[in-house]
Design a protein that fits this description.
This protein is an alpha+beta fold and 91 residues long. The chain has one domain. 26% of the residues lie in helices and 26% in strands. The chain contains 2 helices and 5 strands, in the order H-H-E-E-E-E-E. Strands 1, 2, 3, 4 and 5 form a 5-stranded mixed β-sheet that branches. The longest helix has 14 residues. The chain starts with a helix and ends in a 7-residue tail after the last strand.
Length: 91
């Protein structure tokens, strides 16, 4: 289970520290037992983020069964995907 308050804290930390392996390692230390991963937001299709941040969207992961899946259920959440929003640059 993840609380909305924890998700807000995770978003603030990601916005401050960035999203890289060191930042994920720090989050794992602060929130032991939670699963953290990152990707580009464009890699996630057909699902709305649970929280939109400055340059990053957060999605909840349900890993209670054999396969991981995205969820909107805070009670079922066992992890977070930090998805970096890439800005389009016209050339």
């Amino acid at each position: 289970m993840i609380t909305p308050r924890q998700l807000d804290d995770i978003a603030r930390r990601a916005e401050t520290r960035g999203v890289d392996y060191a930042a994920l390692s720090h989050l794992r230390q602060v929130y032991p037992g939670l699963y953290f991963t990152h990707c580009l937001d464009d890699d996630i299709n057909d699902v709305e983020p649970v929280l939109r941040g400055a340059g990053i969207n957060l999605y909840l992961v349900d890993g209670r069964q054999h396969c991981l899946r995205l969820t909107e259920d805070f009670q079922a959440a066992t992890g977070v995907v930090l998805a970096v929003v890439a800005e389009c640059v016209d050339s």
